[in-house]
Specification:
metal-binding, cobalamin binding, globular, Rossmann fold, 18% strand, metal ion binding, 40% helix, cobalt, alpha/beta
């Protein structure tokens, strides 16, 4: 990989208290050479966007298991737009029904990983989403 490492903010928006998956993804991205900031549990969309901007993140990964993904993802996308930070790529994962994925993509979420996605798949996608010309 050339240049500086990718910077990824991994966040758990809302009241969902289950963060094992987010921690597994954060560790896989870190082990793949990326700089990862894990925001912890119970973050508001405002806190997540602020962290992404302060950390000069290339990507934000959202993990939602609570069923509030439509509201939380939409708010993050709206705040990134308001802060002129739409260049930050947003991806997500968790318990998200397949029927909701096209709507999330419509609002600008670049990728949604559902249960069963491997860390290898996620790492490869993250690399390709920001720097498609580099070797995975």
């Amino acid at each position: 990989m050339t240049g500086s490492p990718l910077r990824v903010v991994v966040a758990k928006p809302g009241l969902d208290g289950h963060d094992r998956g987010a921690k597994v993804v954060a560790r896989a991205l870190r082990d793949a050479g990326m700089e990862v900031v894990y925001t912890g549990l119970h973050q508001t969309p405002e806190q997540i966007v602020e962290a992404a901007i302060q950390e000069d993140a290339d990507l934000v990964g959202l993990s939602v298991l609570s069923g509030a993904h439509m509201t939380l993802f939409a708010k993050v996308m709206e705040l990134l737009k308001e802060r002129d930070a739409e260049d930050i790529v947003v991806f997500g994962g968790g318990i998200i029904p397949e029927a909701d994925i096209p709507e999330l993509e419509k609002i600008g979420v670049a990728k949604v990983f559902t249960p069963g996605a491997t860390t290898t798949e996620i790492v490869a996608w993250v690399r390709g989403a920001v720097r498609p010309d580099e070797d995975a």
